[in-house]
Amino acid sequence: MTKTLTGIILVSGALLVGGCASVPTGPSIMALPGTGKPFDQFRADDAECRRYAFREIGGPNAGKSTREKEIRNAAVGTAIGAVAGAAIGGKQGAGVGAGTGLIVGSMTGAEAGERSSYGDQRDYDQAYIQCMYGRGHRVPVSASMAKSLQQMSGGTYSPPPVSNDASIPPPPAGTPPPPPPGY
Question: pLDDT per residue over 124-172, tens digit each?
């Protein structure tokens, strides 16, 4: 009876945990049509870049190893819980231990799956951005990169405002001395 109960708990937990892993279905960032690009071209490029990004993270097999790890964690947790429960409380303790182990193993597996899903989404977004940028569309970039691109293209750049705080002394007058010899 305990083996049957443990088996049912294990299979139920595996099915429950297996549904936790998610595969990216689209980018989590926004791309905009490139300058002079018609919207129909943008839509076609967007569809192709989504397919490209999906293939880059493993295509239909993306997330498969994550689900396998989640199921393995649930199974190991159940087995360890059953052994510990049997050692502490006999046959009845084995069932309680198996259930507790399943819960703990499932939570551990779900957390690992969430971390892995985050990594899959990040990789998907990077592939999508590269593809859309390569096709001439506007994609998000970091603020420091945007600033350096603006400077390189001759755009206007405003230095940070000067502080009027009286507690900050002005720089010393004149030029700084040269470095010592051999420096």
Answer: 999 999 999 999 999 987 777 777 767 776 665 555 565 566 666 777 7
Do the beta carbons of residue 53 and residue 124 sit within 8 Å?
yes
Distance from C-alpha of 23 to C-alpha of 61, rounded to nearest angstrom: 9
Strand partners, 32: 138
* pLDDT one-digit tens code per residue, 2-52: 555 545 554 455 445 444 557 788 999 999 999 999 999 999 999 999 999
The reported pLDDT for the residue numbered 41 is 96
Determine the angle formed by the axes of helices 39-56 and 64-134, rounding to 10 degrees: 150
- Distance (Å, whole) CA 135 – CA 132: 5
> What CA–CA distance (Å, rounded) separates 17 from 28?
24
**Maximal CA-CA distance, the chain:** 90
